[in-house]
Structures are given as structure tokens and as C-alpha cells.
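writing this on my phone so excuse typos. first protein, seq and then structure
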Amino acid sequence: MSKRQLQVGQILYTNTLPVYFYVNLDRFLGKADFIQQYPAQLNKAMADGIIDVGPISSFSYAEHEDQYVLMPDVCVGAKGPVGSIFLFSKRPIDQLDQARIALTNTSATSVNLLRVILEKFKGMSLEYTTMRPDIKSMMEEHDAALLIGDEAILARQQDLGYYVYDLGQLWYEHTGYPMTFAVWAIRREAVETHGKLLHQLHEEFVRSKNKSHADCSEIVQYAHQHFGGDVSFWEGYFTGLIHDFTQEQIMGLEHYYACTADLGLLPKPVKVAFWATDNITTMSTS
């Protein structure tokens, strides 16, 4: 019986573009399938064993730490504003106690990050509703709404008259840490069955990331053509994102896990465990 092809996830958001944009897909013909989904869908597919490797919400890794290891050198994070994870509010954030908040159904990390910021850091009590990510319908019966990814970017560009808060910036102001929103996870059994292919995939991800960081002009033009917005916006957006999984990113992520555990969102704080890539030549710029 032939071995199943490696199932590789890909998030349908521009924030992961630098890691995928220059990947040589021909290298994986007949060996791997690339599957594009939203973060929450990838979280479930990874947990169900449908996806073997790919970006998932950082929070989802913590929920399944016994089943996954993390790919080194790649993540999606920011130290300060992330530019694509926003709380839209009808009133200032410090006046949201007892408010009704609509949460996007495409996220795990950001939903729980918002709870840490509002409940743990600000001591608020709130009522949440999970909805599909549409700013107009979310705000019809709610005081605030959380959007992530390209839906958040597009809603921000519409200038709808709401107060807008960047969760990356709020986290940084309260903790001094960067925030890691997505990680590339590998199911532990895939390490055993697809080890060589995973090494090749890691090489391609890191090569793409490094090339994108050296010159983001092609990615900027791609985003501008497909999503609109000013070229200068996309230049600032991609420049502000972090895709290197540095020690500082690890510290910030583990602090996030400790905060979510304090709220009872995780049973215990989680430590980051990387894939043991002893024979990988790391190409990270960090």
C-alpha cells in the first residue's frame, strides 16, 4: 500500500504570503498536496489528522501540544501593531465593561488574546457571540466586533466611524512582548513518515521567507492587485510583520499561554516544543 501524500495547510490570509510566495511547488509534485483554508478550519483539520503540517493558530498548538511539534524559523507575529487584527468598537475600549462583543469564527489565538486583554488586564466582564466575519452584521446588535486577517484589513480601510484597536499593539503595551499569532505545526506521526519531505518543505519556507524579507516588492504588488489598498499600506504591513521565530517570540508566546491558562482557557501553561531538526541547515535571518 502506497504512503499517503503529505498534506500541507496554507492559511487564506495575506499575513502568511512571505512564507509561501516563493515556494517551488514543482519540488513537491506527486509528493504533497497544498490545502488552502481559514485558520479555524486548518486548526480542526490538523487536529483531525487531515492536515499533516502547516500554519495554525498559536492557541490551537497549545490545545494539542502532545500531538504536534513546531517547525522552527517560521511564524506570523508582530512586536506592536500587527495591522490585521482589530477590535472595532462603538465606544472607547475602557468603557466596554458589560459590553456585548461579536467574535469572528475564523480565529482562535486572537479571540483568546482579546479575552486576556479585556478580562485579565482590564478586569472586565463581557458577553461574547461568535459570528461569521462581516463587520456590518456583527455591529448590528453588538457594542464591538473582533476581525482578523484580510476581513479586518478591508473593514479598517472602509473607515466606518468606529474606534479601532490593534490587538498586537494592546498586547505589547501591557506586556512588552511581541505576539505570535500563527505557528507552523507538524503532527508527530508525520515526522516519522515524511521526515525527508518535511526537511525539503522547511527549506522552501525559509528560503521564501528570507527572499520576501530581502525585497517585498513582488508581494506588495500581488496584495495590491488582489485586495486593493495603497501600495504604501501593503509595504508598511509586510514590513511590520515578523516571520522569524526568535527567542523573543517564544518568550512572548509562552507568556500568552500563561495568561490564557490564568483565565482557564487552557488547563495549564504550555511550553514551545520544536521539531528536532538536528541535520537541518537553518537559513533564518534571525
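second protein below, same order as before
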Amino acid sequence: MAVEKLVVRFDHWVDPIFDRTLSQASGISLEVLSRDTSDAAMRRLAAAHVYQISPAVNELPLPWRANKELLAQCPNLLCVSSGGAGHDTVDVDACTRAGIAVVNQVGGNAASVAEYAIGMMLAVSRRIAESDRKLRSRRGYTREDLMGHEITGKTLGLVGIGHTGRAVAGLARAFRMRVLAYDPLLSSEEISARGAESADLPALLGQSDIVSLHCPLDSSTRSLMDAEAYAKMKKGAIFISTARGGIHDELALRAALADGHLAGAGLDVWESEPPALDHPLLALDNVVAGFHTAGVSHEGRRNVAAMAADQILAFLRGETPPRLVNPDVWPVLQARFARLLGMQIAGNT
């Protein structure tokens, strides 16, 4: 007899295509649980084969994050599926040790994030947000008081040129920008194929009029942009991040902006999200701020939800998921998959 496969998620907003796709699939049961800590939710999560998890740490209470304590209570769990490109709420190493696959939806909102990054560059360089605020609250200033700079023809430095960085490079061509990229995971030939000139980080910082982060947060990138890195940037350059909080040092950035070394910043991500209302960066007119919304467009959220649902269905059919984060899990996972679902899963190719 075929095993009914249980997928669970918590009750944060997800594009309806996710629930609709899974609910229409044969042999799949989808349950939406309350985030309020309860024994009932834990019982259903303990029975689940797939856990669709929010990657947003500000959205998901600590008891429901996929860490070793939670995994120890989930003997049937075969896959944790992140609802985004990141997986900040998932302990990947703990999942691997437990024989649980981790998948994400990388690339699903790349177009949305890339558009937003370009929008931040324009907003900071042309002082659009500052102009909006002043027009709503003050009179007695001139248009020249809000004079900014074009981004056309400038040099753009991308720290990371994955799905989103590549999309940004493509959009930058419309502004005839020279695009540099630093990505230690890619060869110079691959970086060139993605639309940028390869550069090491010091050269990129020293030559770029705009530096934009598009790398993940991990041990190699935490505090990558610190006081020393800001000092290496061109005087009058602009700093943009739509990546993750923690990659850039916020207080050091505030100092680089306050002393005039940097001309402005566009920040969609923060060490603590949302940042406190009295955060020192929010007091600066030359900072354009967002609440980690670069990927939050109707199209981006729909793409991510559809990709997640399709990948879960493929996984539960025994196929190798295309966006597997922890390929080392596969030998152990194959044995657990066969034992729990009574069917074979494909080899990880």
C-alpha cells in the first residue's frame, strides 16, 4: 500500500500556487500549522515527510527552525524545503547528519532582486528618496540642492555573480556601465560569460563607483564589508546591499557615510530585521532603506512558491531535486527514503 506523503508548513503568507499545486497532487497531504507553539503543531511536524520552511528569521519563531533539537523530534522527515534562495532558518549540517535533504529556490526571485538593486542605485545616486521626503515636509530649497549623479557609464562592482548578480549585470548594460565582479567560487572565464570582468576584491572596491553585494552570508562573508573594506572604496562611491545582513558592518558603514568618504547607501538587509527606529543609519538622508523586500514582488513570490511545490513533488516521486543544498546527504537519505516511503529514490547525479 502506498504511503500518504505529508507536507507541512506554517501559516505565514505563501503565494496560493504552492497550496493549490500540492493539494491537487495524488497521494500528497498538505497541512498548514499555526506558528503559536503548541503540542498539536509539533505532533503534525513529527509526522511530516517534507517541511516547507520560511527562510526569514524575523518570521519564524525559534522553536520551529530546522535545528538539531527540532530534527530529533521528526523521525519521518526526509526534506526541508526553504521558501526562498536563502536558508537562514535551517541548520544544514544538522540536516545532513540526520539524513535529511535541504533544498532551496535559488534563482526564483533573481529578476525581482536585480530590479530592486538597480532601483536602489538610482534612488541613492539621483537622491530620489531624499527629494520625496523634502517635498512632503519642507519649502525654501532649490532643485539644485538635490542634484545627484547619473549611473550611466559608471563602474559597477558586484560582490557575487550568481543568479541575481548575473541579472544585475544584464540590467547594468542598459546604462552602459562597466561591470566588475568578485566571486571566489567562479573562474574568470565563467564570470566573463555572466557579463562582468573578473576582479579581486581590493581592485573591485578601489575601481567601482557603486559596490553591490550579491553573495550569501556564511563564515567567509560575515563582516566582509568592514571599516577596512569601506576605506578601500573610492571616495564618493555608493554602497548597495540586497544580500543578507551581517555581511556589511553597519556601524562602520555609518562612519564611512558620516565622514563623507562614501556618498550614500541603499540597504535592504539588516543585522536585525527590521532595524530599530533609532538605528543610526536611518538618520542619514543619503541612506535609502528597505525591509528585506527586494525579492518580495508578486512575480518573485509566485515563482518561488511554484518552484518549491514542483521540487517537492519531484522529490516525493523519487527524483533528485534540482536545487539540493547538501548533496553529501544522499547515501543516507536513499536508505531512509526506501524505509519510510517504501520506494527508491534516484541517485544524486
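The chain has 13 helices and twelve strands. thats all i got for now
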